[in-house]
Write a structure and sequence with these properties.
The longest helix has 25 residues, at 64-88. The protein folds into 2 domains: 23-88; 91-220, Immunoglobulin-like. It has helices at 22-25, 29-42, 51-62, 64-88, and strands at residues 2-3, 96-100, 103-106, 111-117, 123-129, 135-140, 146-152, 165-175, 186-191, 194-196, 203-206, 209-212, 216-220. It is α+β, with helices and mostly antiparallel strands. Helix 2 runs antiparallel to helix 3 (51-62). A hairpin with a 5-residue loop joins strand 5 (123-129) and strand 6 (135-140). It is 25% helix and 32% strand. The protein has 4 helices and 13 strands. The chain is elongated and about 95 Å long. It comes from Breoghania corrubedonensis. This is Basal-body rod modification protein FlgD.
Length: 221
Amino acid sequence: MTISTVNSYSATTTTTTSSSSSSSLGLTSEDFLELMLEQLQSQNPLDPTDTDTYLDRMVSYASYDTQNSISEQLGTLVDSVDSMISGSGLGYLGTTVEAYGNTTSLQDGSATWGYSLESDAESTTITITDSDGNTVWTGDGETDSGSHTFTWDGTTTDGTQLADGGSYTISVNATDADGDAIDGTTTVTGLVTGIDSSSGETVLQIGGAEIQVDNILSIQS
């Protein structure tokens, strides 16, 4: 059985919730005015509080609701911008990402994939094909269970050095001592060079290859 994870996509919905800061502060301008009236009624008429101080406090607290509303709106705006950047894929542009998939591009003379084996294999064969389905390289892979990384230098089996660009797909065929297939998954790693949303879904471009945003596993420095 061949371990081959297609660059697939499943839509998810993200909901952003913004909580109100006013509930945690627990004091509104109405509350303050009530306290002010209570204090005016209870103060010593022979030693009243300075009216200038009262006025300053009233002006300050009268604007509390407005300031709080602006703060909430700014928080919502920040959340919206973050969501837009993430959803549009702009935050990934120029970064190196790892994502579920099996097709990537030859960049700077190399292409990198990851693959995992659910159990130890007797033999593992790695095959790389071009966008037309032609086999350009084949060789042995790791046989231990777990995750592995494979980097191809763009040299074909017959020694021809391929130029950067284009799409290349990896397939991993792992079998145990009885000849039974071993299951696993594949990932691709590459530099995001472009974004395409013409189809209505955000697709990140790694050279000539494409991956969906929801398939991204990590961003590498």
